[in-house]
């Protein structure tokens, strides 16, 4: 089977490339999260710690990626490879655009979108730019897996233009150029 190493959560182990201080920091974060009752360590996915939790929105089978900390999923979703790949896509967003950008723009937009989709049945959270870009990054990171769920985790914006599907204004490269007015001589 292609990509078998991506299909399961493995116990957290310090790899040869991981330094001892980095491994220690991960261990401290894991202890703090468990001590505060925010989640129970469930293993790692692509080196990112995964926690099962029922705190906040997670009690409704949601999931959450916090780059630099880990991935949080409902206990019944710990083995859901499609969901883990999607959440890993958010980790990839932070790696690509930086954690500051992620927490300032992507996390805020994504949380607002998720909140809205829980109240508005016509709004699809997975069609927003924060979600389809995470899916797209993950899809290509995992070498376009044959079992990717395109319906639940689309990698492109929907064909019909809807609110939240397109890149935000500050990220667009197709902005109309302002006309330069030449003084009449």
Largest sheet: 4 strands, mixed
Helix content percent band: 25-40%
Poorly predicted parts: 1-15
Instruction: Tell the overall outline.
Output: globular
- What count of domains describes the coordinates? 1
Radius of gyration: 19 Å
Strand content: 5-15%
Mean pLDDT: 82
Spatial order of the strands in the main sheet?
1-2-4-3
Structural class: alpha+beta
- End-to-end separation in angstroms reads 72 Å
In total, the number of strands is 4
| Series of secondary-structure elements, N-terminal to C-terminal | HEEEEHHH
Total helices: the number is: 4
Brief overview, please?
This protein is α+β, with helices and mostly antiparallel strands and 185 residues long. The protein is 36% helix and 10% strand.
Tell me what the structure shows.
- With 185 residues, the chain is of the alpha+beta class.
- It has one domain.
- 36% of the residues lie in helices and 10% in strands.
- It has four helices and four strands.
- A four-stranded mixed sheet has the order 1-2-4-3, with helices on both faces.
- β1 (40-45) and β2 form a beta hairpin.
């Amino acid at each position: 089977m292609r990509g078998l190493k991506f299909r399961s959560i493995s116990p957290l182990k310090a790899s040869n490339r991981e330094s001892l201080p980095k491994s220690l920091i991960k261990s401290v974060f894991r202890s703090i999260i468990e001590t505060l009752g925010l989640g129970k360590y469930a293993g790692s996915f692509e080196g990112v710690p995964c926690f099962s939790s029922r705190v906040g929105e997670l009690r409704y089978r949601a999931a959450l990626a916090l780059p630099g900390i880990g991935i949080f999923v409902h206990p019944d979703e710990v083995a859901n490879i499609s969901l883990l790949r999607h959440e890993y896509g958010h980790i990839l967003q932070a790696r690509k655009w930086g954690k500051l950008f992620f927490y300032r723009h992507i996390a805020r937009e994504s949380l607002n979108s998720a909140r809205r989709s829980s109240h508005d049945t016509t709004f699809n959270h997975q069609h927003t730019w924060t979600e389809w870009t995470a899916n797209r990054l993950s899809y290509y990171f995992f070498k376009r897996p044959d079992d990717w769920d395109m319906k639940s985790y689309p990698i492109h914006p929907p064909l019909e233009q809807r609110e939240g599907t397109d890149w935000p204004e500050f990220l667009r490269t197709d902005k109309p150029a302002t006309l330069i007015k030449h003084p009449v001589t």
